[in-house]
Design a protein that fits this description.
Alpha-Beta Plaits, globular, 19% helix, alpha+beta, 10 strands
């Protein structure tokens, strides 16, 4: 039995999230496991670094699985891709230590949230970038976001049905920047609560639009009350772009940015 790790990319728009569901709806996990099972010639179950929501994308999702099949790294990549839809692709494969776990061995995850700040919608990137027609002050958003740094109770930024036992998370870095009409929220933490990044994005966009003052982010954090926050921003602009592991495992950290941000 060997343990194999993969880096997977996907556009999440046509899927009901990463995780398999009993209702039988299309999920990324289901498609990937079916493809890998064909290559391995036996049933394969995968574990991922972060279970992304419906509509959320990834350029650097890491998974692991165990297999008795002897396959080359090239075979896992190209064999799987032959059985996957165009919106999912395996881009890296490697044999890893049996102790490696894509979820529990990770020390940090990095997400980027992209906002097309324009009054006019785009026909090209409507599923991979969120649009906000209000003029956004990226500098004000960045200043406000610094209140999120460190280990804090993120109850004000978690989904009401979040199943995590603890609301405590450690945000390592957060930056908001602008390149012409594209505003990016780049955030790294040890882990994230359900809808945490999208709820942060909703709050920061209100700050950027001048609806709220920059101090509002710190105030919300202290309140620990999701009902006091803003909307949950659309999943369209959210990408998982990096996962960090101890170097001894030999798994690439990223980030792996989408093409329009390279």
């Amino acid at each position: 039995m060997s343990r194999v790790a993969l880096r997977v990319e996907y556009i999440g728009s046509e899927f009901h999230g990463w995780q398999s569901q009993s209702s039988g709806v299309d999920t990324i996990q289901d498609y990937l496991e079916k493809a890998l099972s064909k290559v391995a010639n036996h049933p394969v179950k995968v574990t991922c670094a972060g279970r992304t929501d419906s509509g959320v994308h990834a350029t650097h999702q890491i998974v692991h699985f165990d297999s008795v099949a002897e396959r080359s790294e090239k075979s896992w990549i190209f064999g799987s891709n032959a059985h996957l839809p165009d919106s999912i692709a395996v881009v890296w494969s490697g044999n890893v230590d049996p102790d490696f776990n894509a979820r529990f061995s990770a020390t940090a995850r990095r997400y980027c949230y992209y906002i097309r700040n324009s009054r006019v919608r785009s026909a090209v990137d409507d599923q991979t970038v969120t649009r906000d027609h209000r003029p956004l002050d990226a500098k004000a958003m960045h200043q406000a976001a610094q209140a999120l740094l460190g280990e804090n109770d993120f109850s004000s930024f978690r989904a009401s049905h979040c199943q995590s036992r603890s609301p405590m998370r450690n945000v390592i870095s957060v930056e908001v920047s602008r390149d012409k009409d594209l505003v990016k929220i780049d955030i790294t933490a040890n882990a994230f609560l359900h809808h945490m990044v999208r709820n942060i994005a909703g709050v920061l966009m209100d700050v950027g639009a001048g609806v709220k003052q920059a101090t509002w982010v710190a105030e919300l954090l202290a309140l620990r009350d999701r009902n006091k926050g803003s909307i949950t921003a659309s999943p369209d602009g959210l990408f998982l772009v990096g996962v960090t592991y101890p170097a001894t495992f030999g798994v690439p950290d990223g980030p792996s940015m989408p093409m329009f941000d390279r």
